[in-house]
Amino acid sequence: MKILYLTDQTYLHGGIEKVLSQKANYFADISGDEVTIVTYNQQGKIPVYPFSEKIRMIDLGINYEISRSYFHPFNLRKIPQHRFALQNVLRDLQPDVVISSSFGPDFYFIPSVEKQIPKIKEFHATRHFSNKPISIKDKILKTFTEKIERSYKALVLLNDDEIPFYKSNNYIIIPNPTEVHERSCELSTNKIIAAGRISRQKNFEELLEIFNNVIQDFPGWEVHIYGDDYLGRRVEIEKRIKELSLEKNFIFKGVTSDLKNTFLNYSIYAMTSIHETFPMVLLEALSVGLPIISYDCPTGPSRIIQNNEDGFIIPNKNPINFTEQLKRLMGDEQLRKTMGLQAKKNAARFEISVVMQQWKDLFKNLTS
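The structure corresponding to this sequence follows.
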């Protein structure tokens, strides 16, 4: 089968880029499909995650200005060029299916390009906070977006909690995949890990305050944060770290391209996000037997973590309960190891061969 993925770029660290590499590599190397990835903002940069040599990579070279809205005149004028370039690629390659991975201006015109080719739109972000229009402009855009969504052959959502936010009935639930690691965390170090772009959405500042409440009882412990800075957020948090005199205990470690192996050196994964959809980082934590403590934020962690089995789901925005359960994990190595064993078992639900079979079935239904 000829499979074509569309995305903005593959050079930034992120969940979309990570899962795209996993799925594309699976189809190319395991299933033997002909896979093409088409980007429009690659700018000649090297992909951050490894892609199979069998995959064809094409960049359209549109290069939108991502610091501006896609509706800014600078970006709007590039849309005709984008549509024309994409049409030429689809016309030449004639893929059996097209999957749109990221969200950009092409979302609105993909279904109308080479209409005979089935188009699939996959969503990686929650609509929990964006489904209530607050202006006439928002209402018009929302109505137009819903119309476009109905023109895709399928909308792929990551979990059932997202269903109420979509008006069309062409959706299907397919979670992100993971590969269960052959190694497991020893869970004996005094180190907690968290990962993700350093933004307000990840809410690392609350993790800092929680850790400040436990450090007196566990003075030898550390929290390490892995991820890219976003709009100078790291500097703001580091200022608070200095105020609390936690420079040696709460540490930003930069970026790692091999998070699973990095996890092996830690004993707890902590998530204090304001919202998530289906965070890849939690799947990867389970796959190496790393117990998790996470807020029950909209809309993903509770679909991944089995509460009291492989981790703790904390009522959302309840730092007192988070602190209590974190202390419990930190103080009980045997509990961590019991949860770690269960984590690897539970990760099998999302094993890549299981998830990719769902994608194969979808392709078969759309092309038969």
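The first strand starts at residue 2 and ends at 6.
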